[in-house]
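This section describes the prediction task in plain terms. A model, or a person checking by hand, is given the sequence of a single protein chain and must write out its three-dimensional structure as a string of tokens. No templates, partner chains or ligands are provided. The sample shown here is typical of the held-out split.
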Amino acid sequence: MMKALILVGVVVGLSACGGDRKSLSYDFSENGCQTKHSLNTQQEYCDTLKDRSKNMQEGVECARRARYDEFQRQCSGQKWDN
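The expected answer:
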């Protein structure tokens, strides 16, 4: 069965209140399994992308390939290691 992968969105934006405070977020969905997070730092973003436990829904790891691809684009010099 072919898996459908939908990248719902990856957003890097500025906070309206803090001026230049950066917010990094992602929202991935695959076969009805969705994972989304909003983080304050690049390191938190990278750590959360690769953290299986933070990307689980009902005991299933969500959108691993999409998270890995995003990690490769955004977290240069770091290792996935899982």
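For orientation: The helical segments are 42-50, 64-74.
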